[in-house]
Design goal:
By secondary structure, this protein is mostly beta strands. It has a domain of about 220 residues. It is about 0% helix and about 35% strand.
Length: about 475
Amino acid sequence: MRIPRFGHISLCGCVAAALLAGCSGSQGNLNGTNSLPNRNAGAALYAVRPLRPTASEDVLYTFAGSPDGQSPFSGLLATKTGEFFGTTYSGGSGPNGGYGTVYEISASRAERVLYSFAGGSDGSTPQAGVIAGSGGVLYGTTSDGGGSSTCSNGCGTVYELTPSGSNYTERVLYAFKGRKDGSHPLGNLTLVNGKLYGTTGSGGGSTMCDTSSLSGCGTVFNLIPKGNAVSEKIVYAFKGGNDGALPLGPLIDVNGRLYGTTYGGGGIAGCHPLPYNSTDCGTVFSLTPSGHETVLYRFKGMAAGDGGNPRAALLESRGAFFGVTQYAGGNLSLCKYYGCGTAFELTRKGKAYAENVLYIFGTNTNDGAYPFDASGLVADKAGNLYGTLWVATTPPSCFCGAVFKLHKKARKYSESVLHYFGGGTDGAYPVAGLILRGSALYGTTSNGGAACYGSSESCGVVFRVTP
């Protein structure tokens, strides 16, 4: 079994992947009634304000499919001089419609494809973005490709793009082999003291999550340069029990220790069924460079008014961690069975961590749902939080997602929707998170924009939202 990933997203339709909620018509399953009671709703530190779009959106670039790329699932990397770098899951100049690209958007909004993946040993279908190294080098991962026969389309790669004159040269630093080695990296890399750290969504050797040839619940790995060669080391292999399973998002480095989330595992059931027939709600964990894992928090799901199934990176601020969960949150009538997701804060209480639910999505009929962006939340200087929602529950013309703001006042948060995506030229279905530059927010949508490939299909946009 391959770890399900984001499939093709049709305009105002469904994501064909097991990690997302089932869809019902064009409404993204945002109807029906949950049967679980919300026993802790009163403890959530949130408030509801009238949700009217309060920001203007500007489309910086619209993807055309070939040769420039299609369906950006990753967020953006910004430079000080106004350029943006990112990846697309498909499209480009490769065979069979292309296997994804790495692109640059200039300050004048011109796009340049730095590399088109061919779908073989060079890698295929990147879901993660790129990070910057020294000398203009870019590092990233592809979820497939690499040449291993263990996985039907390859087990994924870690690659390097090096400037060479006006072009870039790609080098595969490591091709995953599956099984104990790890397979299918989905999140961004993290550079710590010259070493690249990342996660794989499967592999690692445990039979708890996958009894096929991929065998494993996911890994944390690092790549260690040795001259012109690079060796891989598995820092931690998840077992699929209380320690967590399926680390789908990026890691962050805080004072030499790594922090991340797992989509499943943790030992507390009550959330969206996972690919390995489990309903565990996921974890927040920390990891030493030597591989000692500590679970900071195990999500409890809807029955406890808690969140569930995080796949996004954490945001650290003054010792606290902020994040979002894709599902759960409480007794919500808008998101059938599994809940609309939450924004949360973890704070240290002695030797343990306690969770505050900052906001439960779907609380208001003008709200949105499913914040599964891998980049996580971003914060401004006042402590307000920003992110994206895959689905908007009160759409202008479709249920095509939104950009939201969580306003901080003392220790309470209230939400406003800054922009609803309309599914047309402005974009649809933001999968990735945002970056904040000055007072403006920048991001991508996996769909929407003008038609590409000479059909009604649309390939996504790069956008700016200015509150």
